[in-house]
Amino acid sequence: MKKRVILMGPPGGGKGTQAVTLKEAMKVPHISTGDMLRAARKAGTELGKKADAYISAGQLVPDELVNGIVAERLAQENDGFLLDGYPRTVAQADALEAAGQAIDAVVLIDVPDELIVSRIVGRVSCPGCGCVYHKETMPPKTDGICDKCGGTLVQRNDDREDVVRERLAAYHKQTQPLVDYYGKRGLLVTVNGNASVDEVFDQIRKVLEF
């Protein structure tokens, strides 16, 4: 039977990049909270309709609804999955356990805060064509100008340093209880995210033994 894995990591820590590679290597679906909400709304399930009312009103979907949608979605998977963006709280972790979903491992991609800040704050993008650059690691040929379309590069509001640090503080506050929760259950494995994409993947592959 294929593994049921939860993937955790800070914003800008490379979790999304690893998820794309992992789902192919593990041959399991990559399921994110956003994907589940969209699928439930599209399918018009009872829970999906309730979630749609909150989302359409610009409100956060309550925990009990998210828990129900996750349980509904995971019930369709009989042979492994890669879960991303859920659980976010101990209450959600309890709900996942109560839904009968036995987790094989929780992979935490650990990246120092200062490296995260450097990664995100250095990003600039082109509003015209969507190309993304990094001032230090992948700069455009001409400072402030998109190589592809010649548009003016901008920094997104949520990539400003003060916003990034707020997001990291919220992440740590939210994640630490889950780290303790899964650590006590012997399910947590931590990999060093301060490495190349291939090196991080290799670490995950070794700890998950696939």
% residues in beta strands = 5-15%
Distance between the termini: 12 Å
Radius of gyration: 19 Å
Shape: globular
* Tally of contiguous helical segments: 8
Mean pLDDT: 92
Structure description:
β5 (123-125) and β6 (132-134) form a beta hairpin. α1 packs across α8 (197-208) and α6 crosses α7 (161-184). This protein is globular. It contains eight helices and seven strands. The strands form two sheets. Strands 2-3-1-4-7 form a five-stranded parallel β-sheet, sandwiched between helices. A two-stranded antiparallel sheet has the order 5-6. The chain has 210 residues and is of the alpha/beta class. The mean pLDDT is 92.
Can you give keywords for this protein?
210 residues, 5-stranded parallel beta sheet, 8 helices, globular
SSE arrangement:
Layout: E1 4-8, H1 15-26, E2 30-32, H2 33-43, H3 46-56, H4 63-74, E3 81-84, H5 90-98, E4 105-110, H6 113-121, E5 123-125, E6 132-134, H7 161-184, E7 188-192, H8 197-208
Parallel strand pairs: 1-3, 1-4, 2-3, 4-7
Antiparallel strand pairs: 5-6
Question: In a few lines, what is going on in this structure?
Answer:
By secondary structure, the chain is of the alpha/beta class. The protein is 48% helix and 14% strand.
